[in-house]
Amino acid sequence: MAQMTMIQAITDALRTELKNDENVLVYGEDVGQNGGVFRATEGLQKEFGEERVFDTPLAESGIGGLSIGLALQGYRPVPEIQFFGFVYEAMDAINGQMARMRYRSGGTYSQPVTIRSPFGGGVHTPELHADSLEGLIAQQPGMKVVIPSTPYDAKGLLISSIRDNDPVLFLEHMKLYRSFRGEVPEKEYTIELGKADVKREGSDVTLVAYGAMVHASLKAAEELEKDGIQAEVIDLRTVMPFDIDTILESVKKTNRVVVVQEAQRQAGLAAQIVTEIQERAILHLEAPVLRVAAPDTVYPFSQAEEVWLPNYKDIIEKVDKVINF
């Protein structure tokens, strides 16, 4: 298997689906000749032509509307929102149109659209670039939200997303793009949407996370092991619909849970996950389900983001509370 960064795995997935299906189209701001701001589409326009990989105007609302029309005509659009903080301009297209199309048409039409977008903090971006806004889309029935944490998962999940007949938001954490390499098969493969992955097994506490917080959770688990605490780390991978069965199976084993997200406490997915655990498995819990999240403030300027963002020490603090409850 090849050693790839996450960005290389994403490019490989796009290339795979452009080869497999002539109806797959990749477009967005600067994704053509420039290969995107992070070079996720580098070389694809040269390989597949300007009619299948092309630049759009700087207009997210236009990108959203174009995607709806193309999907209705039988294409599989893969648009890019250059940074997810810019998604507000396309919210009507996503939540108001794409998510409702199958229901509205009585199953006559579908929206096989995969919206790719970078997000996430820790890389000192300007304002509106790093916000974790996944909760805005996850609250809309009809939308799937996928957030990989490894190169292997990124390729398999992106291929599955593009092949899905319903709209998918595929979010890519900027800090993970080139921070490490992992083994990725060079052949095509898929990972089932809606299926979590147990990244580390444990018996004392369950850590549920997604995106960059998976790696913070794994770091916390390593530190906790020094004190004899075995933490199980679950990577949601698909955050909506999330894999409640895998979570409950772990909870019944560990009896303690901490849910970790980068988004503000009032945002993200943690509150919904906590609620599902409490409703379905309260008799298996030895302590309240706790959350690790960012403060309920606007995302700070880059000088302060390291103080603002959750980290592995915050996770250890919450684990200590549930262990000693």
TrEMBL record:
CDD domains: TPP_PYR_E1-PDHc-beta_like. Residues 4-179 form the Transketolase-like pyrimidine-binding domain. The keyword Mitochondrion does not apply. Its cofactor is thiamine diphosphate. One of its GO terms (molecular function) is oxidoreductase activity. InterPro entries: THDP-binding, Transketo_C/PFOR_II, Transketolase-like_Pyr-bd, Transketolase_C. SUPFAM superfamilies: Thiamin diphosphate-binding fold (THDP-binding), TK C-terminal domain-like. Keywords: Oxidoreductase, Thiamine pyrophosphate. PANTHER family: PYRUVATE DEHYDROGENASE E1 COMPONENT BETA SUBUNIT, PYRUVATE DEHYDROGENASE E1 COMPONENT SUBUNIT BETA. This is Alpha-ketoacid dehydrogenase subunit beta. It comes from Terrihalobacillus insolitus.
